Amino acid sequence: MTAGQARQKTAGREGAPAHWTTRHWLRAGMGTALLVLVLLSALGVWAIARATSITDELVDTRSPSLTNSVRLEIALVNQETGIRGYGMTGRTQFLEPYRQGLADEKTAVDKLRHLLAGNAGGLADLAAVLDRARTWQQRVATPVSSAPPGTPVRLATDRAAEGKAAFDHLREAMTAQQDHFRQARADAVDDLMAAQRLRNWIFTAIALVIVLMVTAVFEGLRRGVTTPLARLSEDAGHVTRGDFAHHITVRGPADLRHLGADIESMRRRLADELTTSERQRRLLDEQAADLKRSNEELEQFAYIASHDLQEPLRKVSTFTQMLQRRYAGHLDARADQYINYAVDGANRMQVLINDLLAFSRIGRFPHDSEPVDLDALVDTTLDTLSVSIEEAGARVTRDDLPTVTGSSTQLGMLWQNLLSNAVKFRDPDRAPVIHIGVSREDTLLRFTVTDNGIGIEPEYADRVFVIFQRLHTKDRYPGSGIGLAMCKKVVEHHGGTITLEPADGPGTRISFTLPAAEPTRQP
User: Fold this and answer.
1) Which residues, other chains included, contact 362 with Cβ-Cβ below 8 Å and sequence gap of 6+?
2) Cβ pair 54, 191 in contact under 8 A
3) Quick one: which of 25, 43, 114, 125 is 20 to 30 A from 166 by CA?
């Protein structure tokens, strides 16, 4: 199968619902929910818009139309009352209701025309009312109101029957108009009530659908996510508690099944690693036993080296020295030279063996970890080196040294080697000045031993801490080349580091760290 075919097959599988991940199911569920909510929202908006439209029409058109129709009727009745009074008495005060009725009529008619714009039936009713009003006004109202005041108007008496009939026709037209307005208003109220009921049903249905959707979402999450995760957590808990043989199986979306498969694979690997580590542990136990036997053999070797090997070496050294004292001057110069070589070699071999024994014992045997007062320890070291310090004319200064936790014996070897080196590798042109400094770095103490001696080149910074590494000949500066290597081993055995740092002036600065002593807890 080619790579393209494999990708197509994988894509086809991922498109199937059985291979959908939690994200796919959530997208599908949220998409469906959003679609349903959009449709329900559109339906709700339509219901609200319809109720609002009917309400607006009822408030802005139907009710005001009926109100202005009544105002128009009142204006025409006021006109008829004023004309009838003026016709009977000839008094001009009766014309005031008539004139006010004309103004109110114009206002009501203008408002009705505005309200009935686009309403053919309403405009037809208004036209019928106005037509009959014009007939009455032309035949009765206008002629009577034009007659001179002071005496009853004869024309009003002559046209009384005609005027009454014309105004009755006008009343019929206004009654028909108002009936139509009342019916339209009642229809609008009925439509509004129906729209409100429909709106209430729609919002009730929306609420029910939302409740069903929320229930479906929670049920889907419970079945598709929380329950599989709970089962996965329970199975993983068995493995966490050490039951590595417990199989992990997960049902649910594809990504949760993949997660379960990954955890199952991890469980199998852990089980395999546990089996392997068990075998390695047994192997380490065997190696530890071998190492223990090897250490015991090394201890025996150290005993032999410190006693059995040194005994013949002491004999060689003693007899060569006796030979040197007894036959000095009795043999030729070359014989005396050979004897000197033998004595010197035996002495240096004895020193080297002792230094090697001391170096090999550091870290090989557990030391007693105890608080060590470095001020007292350095005083003891200076007292031990007092002869060489006085001969060199050296001056040693130091900061107040703290108490550390470690082996006093090994730390004594550390200070003795550092201070003796500072005195030994002095510059012949100036008296040695040695300073011991200390500073705190978190949980560590950093110590520095600075001198003004011959110094060490930076390229030899790492080499000087290697065993048997010498930068000078033994004729100029005697020694075994183990001192700084021993210092490094002591410092590292106490959990610190030792380095050669650049000095501010001529000479050497050795820096090393030691853990600070833990403060004593008060009861």
Assistant:
1) 410, 413, 486, 489, 490, 493
2) yes
3) 114
**Chain segment 266-276, per-residue pLDDT in tens:** 777 877 777 88
Q: Does the pTM of the predicted model rise above 0.90?
A: no
Give the C-alpha separation, 468 to 351, whole Å: 13
| CA separation for the pair 233, 250 (Å, rounded) | 10
Q: Which two tokens stand for residue 199?
A: 């709106």
Separation of alpha carbons 66 and 118, rounded Å: 16
Contact 390, 428 (CB under 8 A): no
End-to-end Cα distance, the chain: 76
Q: How far is CA 400 from CA 81, 328, 369, 375, in A?
A: 126, 53, 22, 7
CA dist 452 and 425 (Å) reads: 9
**254-303 and 333-361 are packed helices; what angle lies between their axes, rounded to 10 degrees?**
140
Sign of CA dihedral 278, 284, 286, 289: negative
Per residue in 73-109, pLDDT (tens digit) is 898 888 888 888 888 887 888 888 888 988 898 898 8
- Concatenating the DSSP letter of every residue in 22-44 gives HHHHHHHHHHHHHHHHHHHHHHH
The whole-angstrom separation of Cα 514 and Cα 491 is: 7
Cα→Cα distances 73→62, 82, 165, Å: 17, 14, 16
